Amino acid sequence: MLIPVRCFSCGTVVGDKFEEFERQIKENPEKDPKIILDELNLRKVCCRRMIISQVNLIDTVLPYNQ
Ligand SMILES: [Zn+2]
User: Fold this and answer.
1) Residue 11 resides in a domain
2) Ligand 1: distance of its center to the CA of 32 in Å?
3) pLDDT by residue (tens digit) across 5-57?
4) 61 found inside a domain
């Protein structure tokens, strides 16, 4: 759905990094996601899983809200 603002485990702000991660994945599909996460300064596994495990379902779910 929507990315949580902070990491559940350590509290680091991750909400602002998901859009950048997605944009870089789209621009360079062959680039290793590991490198993008390193560049975004997400070095802990708890913060990395917040970004990697995110599935953007908001556009799928939104029509059922009415
Ligand atoms: Zn964390």
Assistant:
1) no
2) 20
3) 999 999 999 999 999 999 999 999 999 999 999 999 999 999 999 999 888 88
4) yes
* Domain range enclosing 57: 18-65
How many domains in the chain?
1
- Cα of 31 to ligand 1 centre, how many Å? 23
Measure 12 CA to ligand 1 centroid, in angstroms. 6
5 in a structural domain: no
How many A from CA of 60 to the centre of ligand 1? 27
Is-contact 34 52, C-beta < 8 A? no
Does a structural domain hold residue 54? Answer: yes
pTM of the model: 0.78
Convert 3-35 into a string of H (helix), E (strand) and C (coil). CCCECCCCCCECCCCHHHHHHHHHHCCCCCHHH
